[in-house]
Design brief:
Elements (H helix, E strand, L loop, with lengths): L9 E5 L4 H12 L3 E6 L2 H13 L3 E6 L5 H15 L4 E4 L11 H30 L3 E5 L2 H4 L8 H21 L5 E7 L15 H10 L8 H12 L10 E4 L12
Parallel strand pairs: 1-2, 1-4, 2-3, 4-5, 5-6, 6-7
Helix pairs in contact: 1-8, 3-4, 4-6
The chain binds nicotinamide-adenine-dinucleotide (NAD).
């Protein structure tokens, strides 16, 4: 039998009730990690945890709204206490506010959930991750924050994601000496429920993306989860401070209009 990559490890996944977070929580658990999922979607969060446990894994769910920084910090200590330690932090949840909010409100919600919460969770968790002896922070940014002023990404979204990349590099520098690694994943379009929510981009942008990405398709959540697993495990033990695009080649390719 092959050795599971995360046997005995403990992981906290924000936004684990759906999409990239859900697929990652499932894979981390399948590879032996005890997982705590946090989210505001209690029904789906409980479902994911139940299914992980039914498959023989260890998982817990907590309702945590990542727009509340105090709750984010509390979540880290809750995870440590519940799991008996913490070695992996996946910063993934981000609010996608609907058009019902004002532009100011949308800016605040996106920056708070998609950047400030990542900072609060990481800085709160770092000493705990260091004690595990194999600490890893994996944050989810986007190609919208990495290389491009992408048409369908709002200014707030792009700013939060670009900020996440800068934050992750600083975390890598600050906590590297205590053995904690910090890396960022920049997905292109990944097929998740986000693409069906009210605040999501128009279908024609998605179509255009598919035309422009050399691999000619959207990504799937298990493909991102495998990268999360790589960055969370000892397979990437000498990699820190990096941002890695997983986008079917979209940001690499350039095409003249025909
Ligand atoms: P998703 O909507 O499938 O999942 C996001 C999860 O976060 C949901 O379960 C939701 O309930 C939760 N969430 C939302 N607001 C929250 C809050 N305030 N507190 C706690 N939880 C909250 O979306 P996804 O596509 O899996 O997105 C996950 C991450 O990946 C996000 O940071 C997103 O920006 C990023 N990303 C996604 C794509 C893509 O194409 N899907 C591309 C680039 C980056």
């Amino acid at each position: 039998m092959t050795q599971r990559k995360l046997e005995g490890r403990k992981a906290l996944v924000s936004g684990g009730a759906s999409g990239i977070g859900e697929a990652s929580a499932r894979l981390l658990a399948a590879e032996g990690a005890a997982v705590m999922i946090s989210d505001i979607d209690d029904a789906n969060g409980e479902r994911v945890v139940r299914e992980i446990c039914e498959a023989g894994g260890v998982a817990h769910y907590r309702h945590v709204d990542v727009t509340n920084r105090t709750a984010v910090r509390r979540m880290v200590h809750d995870a440590e206490a519940t799991l008996g330690g913490l070695g992996i932090l996946m910063n993934n949840a981000m609010t996608n506010p609907s058009a019902d909010y004002t532009e100011d409100q949308r800016w605040d919600l996106m920056l708070e959930s998609g950047l400030s919460a990542y900072w609060a969770a990481a800085t709160e968790a770092a000493p705990i991750l260091a004690r595990s002896g194999h600490g890893a922070i994996v944050s989810i940014a986007s190609i919208a924050g990495a290389r491009l002023g992408i048409d369908f990404a709002s200014e707030a979204y792009s700013a939060a994601k670009a900020g996440t990349i800068g934050l992750s590099r600083k975390l890598a520098k600050r906590f590297g000496p205590s053995g904690v690694r910090s890396n960022v994943i920049c997905p292109g379009v990944i097929e998740t429920p986000r693409w069906r929510s009210p605040g999501s981009p128009e279908p024609q942008f998605a179509r255009r993306y598919r035309q422009m990405a050399p691999l000619g398709r959207f990504g799937q959540t298990p493909e991102v989860a495998k990268l999360v697993l790589f960055l969370a495990s000892d397979d990437s033990s000498y990699i820190t401070g990096q941002d890695i695009a997983i986008d079917g080649g979209f940001t690499m390719a350039f095409r003249f209009e025909s």
